[in-house]
Amino acid sequence: AEQFPAFADRGADVHTSVEGFAVDGQDVVAIATATGRLSVPTFWHSPDAGATWQQGALSTQAAEATEIAEEASGLAAVRVTADARRWLALGSKDRTTIAWTSADGQTWDRTPAVGIDRALSDLAELAATQDGFVLVGRPSTRRRTAPSRRCGPLLTASRGRRRRSRATVGSVAS
């Protein structure tokens, strides 16, 4: 099996762990964590179903906001509409959930995902819907949860509006 592309400019002590993929036709996005002395998130884009890869870039604002030790969570999705595409990848640092979004899979913006209580829930699945994205959690393995939380939280985001249900614990703008 072919290895995922290494960082040519970072030496042999930096390892890339691919955490998740999202696919739309021939376009594939991989979210990964590069680990050396410290961890940083990294994004890769393939326009040809994974035959070749280009490293994605953070927007200037995202690069300034991204902190060392942020990691990709392995959750990624793409939402396709008649006029646009939106890629979403989730990650974290400590107990804070971070959302990275991209219109082209190559340049990424960063925003904290507010209201997601990582003490109550572990993020489990992320998927695109016709109206936005849905994030499903499972009860945290780090602490005991109340019986009402044992089913895990559900979070939806649609066109920048946050929707809450009884199980929702946070939001990410689509």
Describe the protein:
With 174 residues, the chain is mostly beta strands. It contains 1 helix and 13 strands. The chain has one helix spanning 60-65, and strands spanning 15-24, 27-35, 39-46, 54-55, 57-58, 71-80, 85-93, 96-102, 107-112, 121-128, 133-139, 154-158, 161-163. The strands form 3 sheets. Strands 5-9-8-7-6 form a 5-stranded mixed β-sheet. The protein is globular. The relative contact order is 0.14. Mean pLDDT is 75; it is low at 147-153 and 159-174.
Assign the structural class, choosing from mainly alpha, mainly beta, alpha/beta, alpha+beta, or little secondary structure: mainly beta
Radius of gyration: 16 Å
- Strands of the largest sheet, in order across it? 5-9-8-7-6
How far apart, in Å, are the first and last alpha carbons?
A: 35 Å
Number of strands: 13
Low-confidence stretches: 147-153, 159-174
- Net shape: globular
Largest sheet: 5 strands, mixed
How much helix, percentage-wise, in residues?
Answer: under 10%
Percent strand equals: over 45%
Order of SSEs: EEEEEHEEEEEEEE
Number of helices: 1
Mean pLDDT: 75
